[in-house]
Amino acid sequence: MIALVVLVTLIGLPVYVFPVVADSPRKVDVIMVLGGRQDGRENYAISLAEKGLAPVVLVSDPYLRPDPYMEAICDVPHQVKVVCFNPDPRTTRGEARFLRDQAAQNHWTSAMVVTFTPHLTRADYIVSRCFTGDLVMAEYKTDLTLPYWAYMYAYQTVGFVRAVAQSGC
């Protein structure tokens, strides 16, 4: 049993802990922030845009109202255009579809997606099925406890299985 846990941990390291899909942030047409832990990734993405990396930031807001955290982001002015949206469905797939549709409407050919480390590889898999342009996956690093890492291994693995089983965008 211990050997199985060690094997799963080692296999998961390049997928969840040190994702090989992580890119350095660079100039793109739009930055999209995936919903999640409300851990600061939204402000990180807005700060990247304000440094000149994109004129628009799409912020996923899959939370139920009222949500003071999201209101503090979505209801205040920023130096760049910030568009908060409710994905349908309220999953990474819904967020990827929103990016696809907005990219078509706005003629965007490049996008940066910001999410936290354990979600990065799965998000890349899902978003790249919907968005065919130049995709930059930006890692938002946050401190996670060991039990939360264990939970993320399981959660992200189940999510990968579901994503692989689904066809198309």
From TrEMBL:
Residues 29-134 form the DUF218 domain. This is Uncharacterized SAM-binding protein YcdF, DUF218 family. The lineage of its organism: Bacteria, Bacillati, Actinomycetota, Actinomycetes, Mycobacteriales.
